[in-house]
Amino acid sequence: MGEDGKLRVLLADDHPMFRAGLRALLETEDFVEVVGEAGSGSEAVKLALELRPDLVIMDLSMPDTSGLEATRRIAALDIGVAVLVLTVHAEEEYLVPVVEAGASGYLTKSSADRDLIEAIRTVAKGEVYLPAQATALLLRHLRDSGEKDGPSLKMLSPREREVLALTAEGYSSTEIGSKLFISPKTVDTYRARIMEKLELNHRSELVRFALKSGLLRQV
Question: What's the pTM?
Fold first, then answer.
């Protein structure tokens, strides 16, 4: 966050007109400050390192370096910069690769007018934003992949597995607390304990872990 408490956002899209429209939309929100724009994936990585925004809104189809690879590189920097993918591509094609690359959210441009601000607020809270239909796609991927549970999954208690699974499905701490009849603060405590046990640094990594371990098939 900036000194004024605003969420600092970097826009990464190769179409200047779209960036201009997106900037105009975001600047109507008093909690957002657009701190930079990138027209390619490599420029997005460079500016993420230089500007240290809270969030990068990333297109996938860009010259030089793809948005997917740029997302992977930004996640690998481990500098606390979240990535929200905003693309024309349907979830069916890119959802799993984007989650595995380390993005904190996925949204199609066709639904941006309805859902973008909600997605930004969700990611800003450290949660993972996925559209409602994304859960079904992830579950389908898990069924088709046939992956086995990794040994580290056995380190988690049954309640920790529940919290991890619900986090992976995109539920907020408040929603998880309501489902499990515990407080949101307790949910956050469980999540922190899970990340410590699994040696993960970012909440988006929890989604990738659940995806690869097949946990969602068990709860």
Answer: 0.71
